[in-house]
Design a protein that fits this description.
Rossmann fold, 5-stranded mixed beta sheet, 4 domains, single chain, Signal recognition particle alu RNA binding heterodimer, srp9/1
Length: 580
């Protein structure tokens, strides 16, 4: 609103200046000018009294009489023969390209352009100034205001051990200076979203007792060139005033992605911002006590200049918590929540493989909300189960009257197929729940297959995971026929195709392609090779036929599982195990 008022002000000033200028022109031009009739003008010509005539495209023309300085005006007939008639009467004719009106229009147009230019220039200047100065006061958190230390972080023990030296360094730099050691200038925390990278960075500042500056990579990116670089300088300048501080840059990918060697855009905003960050980090003194911590989900996308020693010296993985870490995280989030005796933390940790800390916190929060909404005095196992289903698949649909009996049977056999094949070829996995209750996320049913905590997956396990994904479609075809297979297997086929792609392209597990990563070899993200597609389709087809043969061999168990699902809608781990 204020900017609009400023623009109006500048335009008004421009108009006033233009009017003043026009007034001056008009006064100068019409000084000592008298209006006479065109008849009188012709009479003066006949009497040979006219000395000079000024012609133009205006509605009037000007003339001067002999032996007089007075300038007269009269109507301009705009006749093509007028000039010739004047010249035949020995009258001096002067032609003017512009009229008073066109001159006025010209002056007003120029004045408006100048006014608009001044308005836009001032507006952009103010915006640049405001964007260039990051609100550092909003980004800074004092040591006493930081809530979470290492005691409040469950799991990530290896990550905490790697940053313990940094905290000790910031507290007692003299001890390390005697040994000739310098403090690492930067740490990169990398890992999946929700694993606690930001929380770990805050805990480092809390434990070290220093100020914490938190920014995001996107905070530096603006449409105005040079703004991001100025923000970087402003941030580091303010941090240096603190003496010792932690600067945390979340989502550093926004400014730190790899720069293409063939790119001609070396001076764009992102590159300038990245160069400013690199310069500031290179300019650190060993005794300054400032450390930069960055977070990213993918380390491989960052520029090499960021990752070299002297910039971000250490790269610390903050990965998925293991079983023990999940137990600790669950206990931490249950600390202030009333818990029923039928809830066992170990069981929750067991069924939450590949859950991040954020997902576990969300799970327990959903359980608490469910307990309150149902009027329960504490969180019981039913609340945990309901919350688990909500987090993984969405809320259960309450109104299921629109589901036909046929659709229910197809869903039951589909989910029973997943459960059956899992129990047959991957008995080490836990099938904790199978349900045919549809969810708000569009799932017609759900089979919860929990793999064991492992560092690696071997080829057999990868192939088995594909068979488990295809088992639902295989069960549909065996029971209902090829022409009645449904779209319910779309997500399963997508997961199976992704696993197949990784086996062939990334892991070098197929004899047809050998020990190479085809993406790296070809330099492309996708391989559009007919032989590759043909091989993938055949490989997937063979696995599908093996899955069908396995289900046919145990069709009695499939039908028993499906009928039990139709009757109860949901089966737990113990009920599923009773069929085997």
């Amino acid at each position: 609103m204020k900017q609009k008022k400023n623009i109006k002000k500048y335009i008004l000033v421009g108009l006033l200046c233009g009017l003043v200028a026009c007034g001056s022109v008009l006064v100068a031009r019409h000084k000592a000018v008298n209006k006479v009739s065109y008849t009188q003008f012709l009479r003066d010509i006949q009497n040979e009294q006219v000395e000079k005539v000024e012609l133009s495209n205006a509605s009037t023309l000007k003339f001067k009489l002999k032996n007089s300085d007075t300038v007269y005006t009269t109507d301009n007939p705009r006749k093509e023969t007028l000039k010739e008639a004047l010249l035949l009467n020995n009258i001096n004719v002067v032609e003017k390209a512009q009229s008073d009106t066109s001159m006025i229009q010209y002056i007003i147009s120029i004045s408006l352009m100048i006014a608009m230019f001044i308005a836009i220039f001032n507006m952009v200047k103010k915006q640049n100034n405001s964007r260039g100065k990051m609100s550092i006061g909003d980004k800074k958190v004092a040591p006493h205001a930081l809530k979470h230390g290492f005691d409040d972080i469950a799991g990530n023990e290896e990550a905490k051990e790697q940053v313990a030296e940094l905290i000790d360094f910031m507290k007692e730099p003299e001890k390390y200076a005697k040994m000739g050691a310098r403090m690492p200038k930067g740490f990169i925390l990398y890992g999946p979203p929700g694993t606690g990278k930001t929380l770990l960075a805050k805990a480092i500042a809390k434990e070290a007792g220093v100020s914490f500056f938190s920014v995001s990579g996107s905070d530096f990116m603006q449409m105005y060139v040079g703004v991001g670089a100025s923000r970087v300088r402003e941030l580091f300048k303010t941090a240096r005033k603190e003496g010792k501080a932690v600067i945390f840059i979340d989502e550093i990918d926004a400014i730190g992605k790899k720069r293409s060697s063939g790119s001609m855009q070396g001076n764009d905003e992102k590159d300038q911002t990245l160069n400013a960050l690199l310069t500031e980090m290179s300019g650190f003194k060993d005794d300054e006590g400032i450390v930069v911590i960055a977070a990213t989900n993918r380390l491989d996308t960052l520029d090499d200049a960021l990752l070299r020693p002297g910039r971000f010296d250490r790269h610390i993985e903050v990965g998925y918590p293991d079983f023990k870490a999940r137990e600790q995280i669950i206990k931490l989030h249950l600390k202030n929540k009333p818990l029923s005796d039928d809830v066992e933390v170990a069981n929750i940790a067991k069924q939450t493989v590949y859950f991040t800390g954020a997902m576990l916190e969300n799970l327990l929060n959903e359980a608490a909300i469910y307990a309150v909404s149902t009027g329960k005095p504490c969180i019981d196992q039913k609340a945990i189960d309901t919350a688990f289903y909500t987090v993984v698949a969405g809320k259960e649909k309450k109104d299921r009257s629109g589901i036909s009996e046929m659709d229910q049977r197809i869903t039951a056999y589909h989910e029973a197929g997943h459960a059956l094949v899992t129990k047959l070829i991957a008995p080490e996995n836990s099938v904790t729940k199978v349900t045919i209750i549809p969810s708000t996320k569009g799932f017609g049913g759900f089979s919860m297959n929990i793999p064991k905590d492992k560092m690696y997956m071997n080829k057999t396990e990868l192939l088995n995971s594909i068979k488990i994904s295809l088992a639902g479609r295989a069960a549909e075809e065996i029971i209902f026929g090829k022409n009645l297979i449904t779209t319910g297997a779309s997500n399963d086929i997508e997961k199976a195709s992704e696993s197949m792609r990784n086996i062939l392209l990334r892991y070098g597990m197929d004899t047809s392609y050998g020990l190479v990563n085809l993406n790296v070899l070809t330099g492309k993200q996708t391989v559009e090779d007919e032989a590759f597609i043909t091989r993938s389709v055949k490989y997937m087809g063979d696995l599908y036929e093996e899955t069908k043969a396995l289900i046919i061999a145990h069709q009695d168990k499939l039908e028993a599982l499906a009928e039990s699902l139709i009757e109860k809608e949901t089966l737990n781990e113990q009920e599923i195990a009773s069929f085997f």
